[in-house]
């Protein structure tokens, strides 16, 4: 696992987060300048004011639409196209945010790496389309079991990563056990199993340390199959 991926460069989040406001403000400024420029044109005063306000309104609306488009593109860049879960880019930022919360508020938080057992065998015997369907179905089960402030992202291939915000390791394990039961009860993928490595995030940890320890636990769980290793 390439743990240094969390450092990958990305566009400033605040720029996308406030894109609509930035474009709207720019539209008002430009429109205001145009409105002032109308004073030098040979139109009746009332027509100049009306034209200026119409231009300001148009540019402001254009800014709002453009801002929405930028935010939609940013969300898409953070989303895995197959499962519609967050992708590794989203996880990089999410882990950094979670570590900051743990340090500032000294609250519980748990990270779990989850792997689909024998997934290569599924692809080799049933085909890649079937493999994709398995991932989508499992992802939907993952999503249904998230708490309000929890996250699940596709790390890559058949690996997923959970962040259980405000949960202890025991509480995180209960969620994963419930997920395992629901996968077993699913009529389509009931033969599929998952393994997981689950670790409680400590405030002194770095992102690399969190991922390395969770990855070690996942490796142990994968040797057994259909199991959860916890620390």
From TrEMBL:
One of its GO terms (biological process) is cell adhesion involved in single-species biofilm formation. InterPro entries: Diguanylate_Cyclase, GGDEF_dom, Nucleotide_cyclase, Rev_trsase/Diguanyl_cyclase. GO terms for molecular function: diguanylate cyclase activity. One of its GO terms (cellular component) is plasma membrane. It comes from the Bacteria. SMART domains: GGDEF. Residues 107-231 form the GGDEF domain. It holds the Pfam family GGDEF. The chain crosses the membrane at residues 22-43, 50-74. Keywords: Membrane, Transmembrane, Transmembrane helix. The keyword Transferase does not apply. PANTHER family: DIGUANYLATE CYCLASE DGCM-RELATED, REGULATORY COMPONENTS OF SENSORY TRANSDUCTION SYSTEM. This is GGDEF domain-containing protein. The lineage of its organism: Bacteria, Bacillati, Bacillota, Negativicutes, Acetonemataceae.
């Amino acid at each position: 696992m390439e743990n240094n991926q969390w450092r990958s460069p990305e566009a400033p989040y605040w720029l996308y987060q406030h894109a609509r406001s930035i474009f709207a403000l720019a539209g008002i400024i430009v429109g205001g300048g145009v409105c002032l420029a109308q004073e030098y044109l040979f139109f009746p005063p009332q027509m100049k004011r009306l034209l200026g306000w119409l231009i300001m309104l148009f540019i402001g609306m254009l800014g709002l639409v453009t801002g929405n488009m930028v935010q939609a593109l940013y969300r898409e860049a953070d989303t895995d196209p197959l499962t519609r879960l967050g992708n590794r880019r989203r996880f990089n930022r999410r882990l950094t945010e979670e570590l900051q919360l743990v340090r500032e508020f000294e609250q519980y938080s748990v990270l779990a790496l989850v792997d689909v057992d024998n997934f290569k065998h599924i692809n080799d015997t049933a085909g890649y389309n079937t493999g994709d369907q398995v991932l989508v179905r499992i992802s939907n089960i993952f999503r249904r079991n998230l708490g309000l402030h929890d996250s699940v992202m596709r790390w890559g291939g058949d690996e997923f990563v959970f962040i259980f915000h405000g949960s202890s390791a025991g509480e995180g394990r209960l969620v994963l056990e419930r997920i395992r039961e629901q996968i077993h009860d699913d009529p389509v993928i009931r033969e599929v199993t998952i393994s997981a490595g689950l670790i409680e995030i400590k405030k002194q940890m770095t992102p690399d340390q969190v991922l390395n320890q969770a990855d070690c636990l996942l490796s142990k769980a994968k040797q057994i199959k259909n199991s959860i290793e916890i620390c």
